[in-house]
Amino acid sequence: MVTGRPAEPGPGLGVDGDTWLRRLPVHVAELLDRWDLRPDGAPLHGVCALVLPVARQGEPAMLKVTWPHEEARHEHLALRAWAGRGAVRLLAADPSRWAVLLERLDPDRDLSSLPVLDACETAGALHAALDRPALPMLGTASAWCGRIGARLAQSPPPVPPRFVDQGRRLAADLAADPQVDARLVHADLHYGNALAADRPGAVSGWLAIDPKPIAGEPALAVAPLLHNRWDEAVRAYSLRNHLRFRVDYACEPAGVDPARARAWTILRELDDAWWAAREPDGGERVTQAVAIIKAMQG
Fold first, then answer.
1. Quick one: CATH architecture of 17-103?
2. Shared fold status for 17-103 and 111-295
3. Would you call 106 a catalytic residue per the annotation?
4. How far apart are CA 110 and CA 86, in angstroms?
5. In the CATH hierarchy, which top-level class contains the domain 111-295?
6. What are the pLDDT digits (tens) for 220-268?
7. Rounded to an integer, what distance in angstroms lies between the CA atom of residue 27 and that of residue 47?
8. Exposure check for the chain: N or C terminus, fewer CB within 10 A?
9. What is the rounded distance in angstroms from the CA atom of residue 148 to the CA atom of residue 139?
10. Where are the domains of the chain?
C-alpha cells in the first residue's frame, strides 16, 4: 500500500504511510464499534486505502479507510452529492478518519470485463449521469492547469520540447475558459473504478467508485481511459486510431467535444510524465505518455 511514502503537505495530511499503517488496526476497530459493524469477508486494498467487507444490522456494506492525501479529501462530499445515481451509495462518513461506509458492490466485475470501446462508451455515460454543478470546496481545474504549467516551465519532463511548449500553451488556454471550473467531475474514472450493480440509479448496470472529485469540466476526465488497458492499445493495427476511437466513444455519451478531451489528455499526460520521471522505474510511463500525446495531435 503506502509503505515508505512521506506525508503530503497540507491541512490534515501530516501522516506518512508507515505511521498510518501502524495506526490502521486501531482506526478500523474504532470505526467498527462506532458504526456497529461486523467484519464479513477478507479485506481488500488498493494503493492508498483498505476496504473491508462488513455487515451492519445484517446488511452488507464496505468500510473504506484511506491514507490521508489531497485527492481523497472530498470523496465523501462527491458521493453525497451523487446520492447513489451513477455512483456507489454513501452510507456514512467520518472525514476526520478519512473513512467512508459504502454499499457493497461486486469487486470482481469492473469495466475491464467489457470490450474496450464498449467500456469507454459506458464510462462516458457514467460521466453524463454524474454531471452536477461543482461543489464550492473542491480544488479547481484552472488551479490544476496553473500548477502543471509551472512544473512544465520550471523543470520540464524528458519529452520532446515541442510537447512541453504545447503543454504550457494548453495550460493557459484551458484555464482561461469561463466554464472550466463549473462542473463536479470524477477525475479518475478508469476501467477499474466502475463496478457492476443491479439497482435503480446504475448506468446500464454500472456504478462509479473511488472518485477523485474536482471542480472542472468532463473533458478532463477522458485521459485515464487511454493509458489503462495499454496492452490492448499496442496490439492495435494503428495505435493513433485506436486511442482516438477511445476518446470518441467516451465523448459522445458524455456530450464532450473530442478535440477538447484530446487537449486535456495531452496536458494530463505531460503532467503524468513529469511525475513519472521522478520515480526510479518511471521511464516506461514517460514513453507511454509520449505515444499518447503523439496520437492526440491534430
1. 2-Layer Sandwich (3.30)
2. no
3. no
4. 14
5. alpha beta
6. 999 999 999 999 999 999 999 999 999 999 999 999 999 999 999 999 9
7. 18
8. C
9. 14
10. 17-103, 111-295
